[in-house]
Fold:
Amino acid sequence: ANALVTFLSQVPRESEEFTFVGFLPKTKSQMLDVLKKSQKSDIIFYESPNRLMSTLEIISEYNPYAKVAIGRELTKMYEEVVIDNVKNTIKHFKENTLKGEIVGMLYKSCENEDDLDLEEKINLLKSKNFKAKEISTILAALYNLNKNDVYRRLIQE
Structure:
């Protein structure tokens, strides 16, 4: 059986549209270029157990609110699928041994209303001439977010 087909049958998706990229590029800048496409559709990729943690860290830097799905050993007896935000997924795989073939998916950006709401608030504060540092401090305090995560998101826009 094919791991990609098995993965697609096991993870919920809001749209049938997705982009399959095979293995993500090894350099951070090339990987970020690929991840920016997630604005339009879900991105599905293969990853090695040795690189999964660094890939998840890069996704977290790109979008600390990202929702991901990671499937492991999908056509085998000990298959596992984790669907969560990227930070919880990193925590999960730090606590569990990584082996075998891995299929991952970065869900389309701004999938839920909270992300859209945050984007609206960022844009409102920007329109009032607040600086990125001030915006990150304000939103972190109001929404119990990590100030550095909000700041990183701001400077990537």
